[in-house]
Design goal:
It is built from 9 helices and no strands. By secondary structure, it is an all-alpha fold. Mean pLDDT is 84; it is low at 1-10, 21-31, 33-37 and 298-302.
């Protein structure tokens, strides 16, 4: 009985040892997978800590990763402060970083004041900077006034500058009138300028009427101009009729022109029927023409 018991115990021990060996082997085989999964999770967490602190699990960061996250966080904060974002935490800046930020903010404010872009805080300017900015603002205002820009403040102009601006405004109005602009104010023209403008307008009106574009006032044409315009209008209408355009007015054609167009259209129709290509109206063919057309051709009608 003792021998049997020992035999059973030995068999049981072998089974137990075999299972343990199998479990150990399985764990050893899964170790690379578990290790890789942990590595991926660690990498994802590190990325999250760099980009979004809210999604960061700081408890699993290594000492090196914590240092890297802190460095990235400082850089983000510096960038936010330089960009003027509300997320900037000045208390996190070192003394050199805070000094560099103050210098950059001062230069940015000075640039805005000098160039007239963005917000400008004059109270942060030094005496010399204020004189420089005042000079730049006067030059910019004078330029705006000379160019007729709405931001012009005439109250800041000197007497000499005001006279220069008045002359520039007058010349701009004369140019607007000569170019046919709606901004033209005829009441501000001198008599000589008004006479010159009439000549310019007559030339422009004659050109518009002759070329068939823009505003044309036939009542302002001289007899010679009216004759030229009538010839050009007739020529454009004949061309439109020849091309089959909708602007053609057949009633304005002469009998000779109308007859020539009819002959040309008749020939086009015959060729279309003959070649079986294009619009063909066989009802318009003469008996002789119809006899030459193959009965196998398609009879296309509108």
């Amino acid at each position: 009985m003792l021998a049997v018991g020992l035999y059973v115990s030995k068999g049981y021990m072998k089974t137990i040892l075999g299972k343990r060996v199998w479990v150990a082997a399985a764990c050893f085989g899964l170790w690379p997978v578990l290790s890789f999964a942990q590595s991926v999770d660690s990498t994802q967490n590190l990325t999250a800590c760099k980009n979004s602190p809210e999604a960061c699990n700081t408890s699993v960061l290594t000492e090196a990763q914590s240092a890297e996250v802190a460095r990235v966080g400082r850089q983000h904060n510096i960038s936010d402060c330089r960009s003027g974002f509300e997320s900037c935490d000045r208390s996190q800046l070192s003394e050199p970083e805070a000094t560099a930020l103050a210098v950059a903010e001062h230069e940015h404010n000075l640039s805005n004041c000098r160039d007239g872009f963005g917000s400008c805080d004059h109270s942060r300017l030094s005496r010399l900077e204020k004189r420089e900015v005042d000079s730049a603002e006067r030059e910019r205002n004078l330029s705006n006034c000379m160019d007729g820009i709405e931001t012009c403040d005439t109250s800041k102009l000197s007497e000499r500058e005001a006279n220069e601006v008045a002359i520039a405004n007058h010349q701009r109005n004369v140019s607007s009138c000569q170019n046919g602009s709606d901004s033209c104010d005829r009441s501000k023209l001198t008599q000589k300028e008004a006479v010159a403008l009439m000549a310019v307008e007559q030339v422009r009106n004659f050109s518009n009427c002759s070329e068939g574009w823009g505003e044309c006032d036939h009542s302002k044409l001289t007899p010679h101009q009216a004759h030229v315009v009538a010839f050009e209008e007739h020529r454009r209408n004949l061309s439109a009729c020849k091309d089959g355009l909708e602007t053609c007015n057949y009633s304005e054609l002469t009998n000779t022109e109308a007859s020539a167009l009819l002959r040309a259209e008749h020939q086009r129709n015959y060729q279309a029927c003959l070649k079986d290509y294009g619009y063909c109206d066989r009802s318009r063919l003469t008996p002789a023409e119809a006899s030459t057309i193959s009965s196998g051709h398609n009879d296309v009608r509108k």
